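Exam review. A common question shows you a sequence with its structure tokens and asks you to describe the fold in words. Practice with the pair below. Do the first one on your own.
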Amino acid sequence: MQDVMFLKNRVKEHVELVANHYTNHAVFYCGLYGSQNYGLNTDDSDVDTKCMVLPPFKDVVLGRKMVSTDLADPYGALCNVKDVRAMFDNFFKGNVNFVEVLYTDYFSVGVDYLKEAKELRDHRDMVANRDPLRLMEMAAGMARQKYVAFNKYFESKKEVLSQYGYDPKQLHHLVRLYYFMTEYLASADFGYALHPDEDVKEYLMSYKTNPLPFDEAEKHRERYMALVDGLLERAREFWGSLEERDLAAKRSKEVRAFLDDLAYRLLCKAYDVG
């Protein structure tokens, strides 16, 4: 069973995985992303994480390429490892899968960086909601990816495609993103939109636990993609005015300054300078 302790321990295991692989990088923050954050996990769900690391001083001075890779744990789950500067860029862009690690209950922080991690999480709403239209566009883009992946062949999906003719998980994600966008359009609150209510959870889980026949699934695929497109159009009407874009630009400057300053202070602490 994936209870709280199980999930927290898996996150800690990912921290150890990263520390052992990147011995000259300090781990700042590692957070879970995926179904567990929405209450939509099963006992078989992967425990995937995103981990921010601080590069060695020499890498920064020499302008070496920032770390950005995936590490697999013994159970087949992935830890997406990125230089803190690259991860902050993804936060700024409004990448939903990245931003959600600031809202997860399952995270681990390097002991030397507890203050900075708390500061980042305390400012997560400012970061996540800096540009609601941009966030909706990113979510719609993710939904489109799930739409395309619905019955696209991947070697790793060979068995499920043979059984159902499509990947139920991709349809599940498409529908989940529709509900996320619906709640975000109504609230402009990332944390609120991330957590579906119980009735919606039950409905979403049915796509994974009781997959639809292909013909019915195809109808759902088309319907929800059209609904996502409609939500995006409404978002553009709501947040696309010159006044709203000016406000978003102002918030964006504040968020960029906050993230840049926090990255600077993290690196100064890592190198014991400043």
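Now try the second one, then compare your answer with the model answer below.
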Amino acid sequence: MSKVILITGASSGIGLETAIYLAKKNFIVYGCARRLEKMKPIKNAGGYIFKLDITNESDIVNIVNLIIKNERRIDVLWNNAGFGLWGAVEDISLERAKYQFDVNLFGLARITKEVLPHMRKEKKGLIINTSSVGGRIYTPLGAWYHSTKHAIEGWSDCLAFELKKFGINVCLIQPGMIKSEFGNIMLENLERNSKKSPYYKLNEAMSKGINKNLKNPIGSHPIVVAKCVEKIIRLKNPKKRYLVGYGARSMLFIRNWFGDKFFEFILKLAGLKG
């Protein structure tokens, strides 16, 4: 019997690539995101697509009820919706920061809470949460983004402990550098900040680095994440954490084994001197 998989954030990057990949592998895939038109390739691959605003509770209730009505179960929930808010803490309004948390953390929590009763009824299930290597390290101007990913790490650990007795597994994917729209979104956020900001030199240094990477992209193709997700889905007892993609292991190794001073030295070598 093919597993029923609900994927949020399926309109671009790793979400879109993985939804297409899994649909072609004959899984029953429901791809959800705000940009419906961007998900047509999922439909072409044999999956289903629906518009979903992860911050809208009625949207969440409706999509979960629809899948249960159609399939009678949800085997896998991949919480992949999210974005990166980049800029100095002082430059970003708390309103924007709260929205970052509402999408990256509370949206994830809302849909998980909606799906859990159905998984408990089946006495099995798998929840995959997209964290980031950024949930274990930090980079300049990413305070609000990194804090949501660090929160997802702790939230997922607690959830995994709570759900173990119900036969439900919780896993974290920690991507490194992946070729996607993420760099463009970072750049848009940085450009919002005024040149009058006391952090403008750091903004410019970060923007320069992002533009360089956009012209000559460094990073793994999203297919590496798709294959990792498939592996997790097929395993009876998956690990709790999966580092995947360019730089993920090396960045974490440097931070863990050489400490903060050396890690910040590496950041300065990259031109992020503030």
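Model answer, second protein: The first helix runs from residue 13 to 24. The CA atoms of residues 133 and 174 lie 5 Å apart. Full marks require stating both points clearly.
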